[in-house]
Predict the 3D structure of the following.
Amino acid sequence: MQEVREFFETVFTGFGLTDAVDILLVAFVVYKIMKFILETRAEQIFKGILLLILVTVLSDIFNLHTLNWLCKGAVALGAVAILIVFQPELRRALEIIGRGKFVKGSMTKTEKEENKIIVRTIVNAIKTMSREKTGALIVFERDTMLEDIAETGTILDAKISEQLLGNIFYEGSPLHDGAVIISEGVIYAAGCVLPLSKRQDLSKSLGTRHRAGLGITENSDALVIIVSEETGIISLAEDGVLERFLDAKAVEKKLLDFYMKEDNVGGRLSRLFGKDSFFKSGNKANKEKPEEETEQVFTEDINETVAEDLTQVAHAAEQDAEAAEAEVTESEEERIDV
């Protein structure tokens, strides 16, 4: 018992607040690394590394010198392999740290109104393309610069409009097969070539457009909206995750959050360490306000959609009535001729 007491006295001698903070920070970093490993393809790689370390230890215990020498060499190369395998994730983290632009000024009322108009324009274009089954691939640039991707296409630097987006992705357009990059509220480039995702667990039904949209989010912090050419299904890719079967409301809410959310310290840190970390920006009251603004936009959008549908129904009924009237007139003329 005396030995146990001496052990704890030795360990905790001089233990202060700084040491506690140090331990908590290390524990948090280890937790986030373990969580990242368990949620991604890194889990299998991590299991392989543990197995390799275990074989190295056992070979040393049982004096298997050749096997031990090979395992030690493989462990040494493993550090380089980890850097290669997780290059996209490490690059994104270093970009956020090295950029240093953690604080951004508050958005003015005029800028918010302009962003609402941009979101509504994009959503209307996406709804039209989904209804008409026009394939689309729209990339929204965040902090990671996509200049190298833009150079693979045609630089437009044009104002966002529903007609322009429709013309770009029209099947007969020379730019319809590539991606559109939207940066700082303008259509910066079109017809761009994106890197394809290398994931093997994707559905066989997903084509090149979806794999390209997912691939750019694995290499940057961009947000991507995809419209299927075969089915008209709207999908959204972000942080290497693909969400499918979205409606116009979900897309609008995501874009409003994309354009309206103020870029502060908490938002940057949460993007670096993960979505569910405690570095969340703003409080509950601040989060409720954009939702109220979003609901108002949703209501206006629903009214516009209902009006459009009623107009289309009325137009179709009018055409049917004219066709029926023309058939009656034609049949009466045939009777007179007889």
Q: What stands out?
A: Strands lie at 136-140, 154-159, 179-183, 186-192, 223-227, 234-238, 241-246. DSSP finds twelve helices and seven strands in the chain. Residues 262-304 have pLDDT under 50 and may be disordered. Residues 53 and 313 are 69 Å apart (CA to CA).
